[in-house]
Amino acid sequence: TIMAEQGSTPSPSDAPPAPSGPPPKVTTLGRAAAPMASSNSDFTEVPEFEVFGLTVPLSSVCPEYLDILDVDMMKKPEEINKMQHHTSYYHSDFLIVRRGQEFQVNITFNRPYDSDRDKIAVEFVIGSSPSYSKGTYIPVFPTKERQSSWEGRIIDQSGNSVTMGITPSANCVVGKYHMFVAVATPFGIRRTRRDKSRDLYILFNPWSPDDAVFLNDETEREECVMTEMGIIYHGSYDDVSERNWNYGQFNYGVLDACLYIMDRANMPIVNRGDPIKVTRKASAMLNSRDDDGVLVGNWSGDYTFGVAPTSWTGSTDILLGYASSKMPVCYAQCWVYAAVFNTWSRIWPKFSLRCLGIPARVVTNYFSAHDNDGNLKTDIILDENGKIDRNRTRDSIWNYHCWNECYMSRPDLPAGFGGWQVVDATPQETSDGMYRCGPASVQAIKHGQICYPFDAAFVFAEVNSDVVFYSRRKDGTMDPVRVNHSHVGRMVLTKTPLKMTRRDITDQYKFPEGSTEERTVLEKAEEYGCEREKSEPPVADVDLVLPTMEISLGDDFEFEVEFINRSNQQRTVDAYVIGSVVYYTGVTSSEFLFDTPTVEIKPNMSKKELVEVESKSYMRDLVEQANLNFIVTGKVNETGQIVTAMKVVTLRNPKIMVEVSGPGKVNEEMMATVQFTNPFSFSLDGVYIRMEGPGVMLPKSKYYSMITGGSSLTWTEFFTPQRSGTTRVMVTLDCPALRQVSGQASITIQA
Questions:
Q1: Phi then psi for 737, rounded to 5 degrees?
Q2: Nearest CA to 583 among 546, 621, 632?
Q3: Catalytic site residue 401?
Q4: Catalytic residue among 224, 330, 334, 530
Q5: What positions does the entry give for Ca(2+) binding (predicted)?
Q6: What pLDDT is attached to residue 277?
Q7: Among 401, 406, 447, 455, which one carries the catalytic annotation?
Q8: 525 in helix, strand or coil?
Q9: Residue 55: what are its φ and ψ, rounded to 5°?
Q10: Per-residue confidence at 4, pLDDT binned at 50, 70, 90?
Q11: Most buried of the four, 30, 44, 269, 583, by CB within 10 Å?
Q12: pLDDT (tens digit per residue) in 264-315
């Protein structure tokens, strides 16, 4: 005691003994009467008998009691339940229906059912510790005199059989339920035993006006819930490319995989009927940054221990791989996160989102601002001579960025902010301590109401940031020398409903550049803390124009810079032409070109400067997606003004050819043939080819250790279509030296 009072440090012998053995198990004991149910796979046994003071079987006391002989879930694809609930495409052994809409079950008794004296209930249970008050235990009664939150009625009665209609509430928990049929007698309650064949899935229902995800547009609904084939847009603003993707929300096991992901997230069962909470949790669980979620992000170019993001063709392998291994899947970039999330919502309704029934679509934002600290400025630092200072330039502009939109009402926001919501699973910044983003109302983003949850300010900056060029003096002070208001958020694309074409939805995110509405929106965003660049540096009287080019991988080419003098006096520009190999995120991998021409331009004239680019200068450092970024900056000697221009050039990859035998018919074998020729003088090592087709072919892959320069390969695969309609067979080729080679063949399958 004296030592402690004097501030001395106790000796080691005075310290308490170190704990030994395993740490105590963390439980809810002491703060909750029972643990919160957070697993759809957990189940509490429901007693077969609940006897009222009797200890003998009911049959010995009352031989005429009503007994259940059989329960038919009417779950075949051609039967009424799956047809009316739009779930016929799901490959599942169980009944799958949607909430807020009636489905039917047929019950056979040992004698005719008598509504006057027989009391029955169909019971639904989800998760452990089922509770009526929490909506995880729901009894459904056949008479109007007694109803619960789910409605029930007798549709038909014939002999000993009764067809009962059951309507789940439009806000019930979404997931896998267990079903029982219970009969009440004067002596107690007897119910059916647990039978897995009577389990059923209940999904969100965009066809029901009472459901929070109701979408009152049949074409949009068909595209965003039922369509398996997606198109993801990438490339650059003036050179848009397409990537096909199989969402696979109906494939066997995908729905269970999505439910497992929610279980892995420990999401309370009672929250799984709220699309706001489901999508927010999903955006966190799709990445593995802080919760061992589905996908590991990798932008390094080294994919040694996994699959390159450009190699995936669909969501099925990813979701099933995660569910079976219980480990994050390697690797992903933004479009993979968006595509797999889109499956969840269509599944969860595609957990990947379509699978669960939530209308969802993948959206691409061209020139997407990142790392801007929550303000509305993307800063590019130049030295006094107008040359870019890469050591001090921290912000980046992605050539494109993919996210998701999910359709739902937003009762937590003022009227008018429901509808499409941005949800982004790519791990960029934390939100409430986790890597997730959204749901953020698209309408709130367009109108600058970025105070509303969730993460609207971050998305607003992605589409509205100004690109500000600063000139840094030797003393460290910086002056804005040019502000570009229109570069970021140049175009926002998604797939046109039920067509294989693109749809420009930029006007859903922002008002026209320079309009009165746009100025009002930016002022509103400033009120909520988004800082803008207020200065308006004078516009230089010399313009720079960079060309739009189509260049194949491995080509030599000329890069042309046009200087336009719009003044009545001669101008001289000391220019810097810098070419870099960049990731699609705008991050520089290496610099392959540096030229410093001095250009003299006569009054009201233009002059072109040609720069030779040899393939050997960029090929050795090329990264996936083969992007070259050209930045031209300079200083006008006569005025001291700074001129700038930027251009991203995506090199064209060689083609891979896909041919499919035809005509195709359901359940008749077909053949797909892949052909590829290595156009280079060097060999391609470690080549993977992947192939799949929605409704016709499950994912397949083939490995080639080497394809020598100038040689060709042919791969033939047989498959049997399971569904009629128009679809595609998609193929990707991937190796360390060549990424993002793809091809596809459209086919129509007859019934």
A1: -90, -10
A2: 621
A3: yes
A4: 334
A5: 464, 466, 513, 518
A6: 95
A7: 401
A8: helix
A9: -120, 10
A10: very low
A11: 269
A12: 989 999 999 999 999 999 898 989 887 888 999 998 888 988 999 999 999 9
Q: Which two tokens stand for residue 355?
A: 């699978």
Angle (CA) 686-688-691 rounded to 5° is: 175
Task: Enumerate residues 6+ apart whose C-beta is below 8 A from 629.
Answer: 579, 580, 581, 582, 586, 588, 646, 647, 648, 649
Q: Which residues pair with 598 in a beta bridge?
A: 574
Structural domains in the chain, CATH included, are: 49-203 (2.60.40.10), 224-467 (3.90.260.10), 542-650 (2.60.40.10), 657-750 (2.60.40.10)
Please write the tens of the pLDDT for every residue from 75-111: 987 789 999 999 998 888 999 999 999 999 999 999 9
In whole angstroms, give the CA distance from residue 489 to residue 703. Answer: 39
Query: In this predicted structure, what is the pLDDT of residue 166?
Result: 97
Closest CA to 446 of 502, 506, 514, 399: 506
Distance CA 750, CA 667 (A): 10
d(CA 2, CA 681): 83
- Relative to beta strand 606-613, strand 557-565 is antiparallel
Which DSSP category does 416 fall into?
T
Q: Would residue 487 show up in a list of annotated catalytic residues for this protein?
A: no
DSSP 33-71: SSPPP--SS--PPPPSEEESS--S-HHHH-TT---EEEE
Specify whether 574 is catalytic: no
String of DSSP letters for 205-228: -TT-TTSTT----HHHHIIIII--
Who's near 386: CB < 8 A, 6+ residues apart? 471, 574, 575, 576, 633, 634, 635, 642, 643
663 pLDDT band (50/70/90 cuts)? confident
Q: What is the pTM of this model?
A: 0.89
> Is 464 labeled as ligand-binding?
yes
Q: Is 473 exposed, middle or buried (0-12, 13-18, 19+ CB in 10 A)?
A: exposed
Whether residue 513 is annotated as binding a ligand: the answer is yes
The whole-number average pLDDT for the span 707-735 is 94
* pLDDT, tens digit, 9 for 90 and up, residues 183-223: 987 667 888 999 999 999 999 999 999 999 999 999 999 99
Cβ pair 369, 399 in contact under 8 A = no
Q: Sign of dihedral through CA atoms 521, 523, 529, 535?
A: positive
The DSSP output letter for 652 is B
Arithmetic mean of pLDDT, 712-720:
96
Residue 59's pLDDT band, with cuts at 50, 70 and 90, is: very low
